[in-house]
């Protein structure tokens, strides 16, 4: 049951699109890669701090780091995204979710997309999911919520 979520609650998770829309509203225009990383870190820290996922969309270990496929397909081919470019529902995020995302943005938000990508490349959830792949190999292995929780809970 590696993909099973260890979080039982009545919280109805939002979607990665909802989280992305909120991040864009808070940050203004950012690159698609930076948005992916901020969505990933928001999920990671929600799993640790709030003991619940922000969303249930799968995160994959792609060449440039963790990627939420549903979000990628919504903005494919675009380098920079602005508020309103992602069709998410910010109202789907409860106050606890917003607080977690705001904390992530406070710490990671001023970092460059490349810095965030490099950081994810040095962390176990992505590196473990990419085991056996060469540097440039395309991959589609899921980074599970369990793997994310295990790694980031060891950092707090």
Main β-sheet: number of strands, strand sense, barrel status?
A: 2 strands, antiparallel
- Chain-averaged pLDDT: 91
Task: Give start-end ranges of low-pLDDT stretches.
Answer: 1-9
Strand % is 5-15%
Q: What spatial order of strands do you see in the largest sheet?
A: 1-4
Helix coverage percent of residues?
40-55%
Distance from first to last alpha carbon = 25 Å
- Structural domain count: 1
Give the overall form. Answer: globular
Secondary-structure element pattern, one letter each: HEHEEHEHHHH
- Secondary structure class reads mainly alpha
| DSSP summary: helix tally | 7
Counting DSSP E segments of at least 2 residues, the number of strands comes to: 4
Radius of gyration: 14 Å
Task: Describe the 3D structure.
With 156 residues, this protein is mainly α. The protein has one domain. The protein is 49% helix and 8% strand. The strands form 2 sheets. The chain has a two-stranded antiparallel ribbon. A two-stranded antiparallel sheet has the order 2-3. The chain is globular, with a radius of gyration of 14 Å. 37% of the residues are buried. The N terminus is likely disordered.
């Amino acid at each position: 049951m590696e993909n099973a979520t260890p979080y039982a609650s009545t919280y109805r998770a939002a979607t990665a699109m909802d989280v992305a829309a909120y991040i864009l509203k808070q940050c203004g225009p950012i690159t698609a890669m930076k948005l992916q990383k901020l969505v990933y870190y928001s999920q990671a820290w929600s799993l640790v701090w709030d003991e619940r996922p922000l969303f249930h969309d799968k995160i994959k270990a792609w060449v440039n780091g963790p990627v939420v496929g549903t979000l990628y397909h919504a903005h494919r081919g675009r380098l920079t995204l602005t508020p309103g470019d992602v069709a998410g529902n910010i109202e789907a995020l409860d106050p606890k979710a917003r607080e977690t995302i705001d904390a992530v943005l406070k710490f990671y938000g001023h970092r460059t997309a490349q810095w965030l990508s490099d950081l994810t490349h040095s962390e176990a959830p992505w590196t473990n999911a990419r085991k056996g792949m060469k540097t440039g190999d395309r991959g589609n292995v899921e980074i599970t919520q369990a793997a994310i929780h295990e790694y980031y809970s060891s950092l707090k």
